[in-house]
What we know:
Elements: H1 6-15, H2 17-37, H3 45-70
Helix pairs in contact: 1-2, 2-3
Amino acid sequence: MFPEYRDLMTKLKTTDRHFTNLFNKHNELDQKIKNMENHVEPATHEEIEVLKKEKLVLKDEIYAHLKAVSGK
């Protein structure tokens, strides 16, 4: 995710609590979606779609935060 910000992301994960929370929530949702799609966790198609939308919102927030912090 966002290879152009890889170094900044590494730094923010240790210095920026808000970024860390966004990043962790995104990763947790990603894993939950994978588990549901692989039938490790029960879920309907609609439930998975809702989680995917939540994950996309988090990704947008992460990107906006990265842009703001980097000044780009």
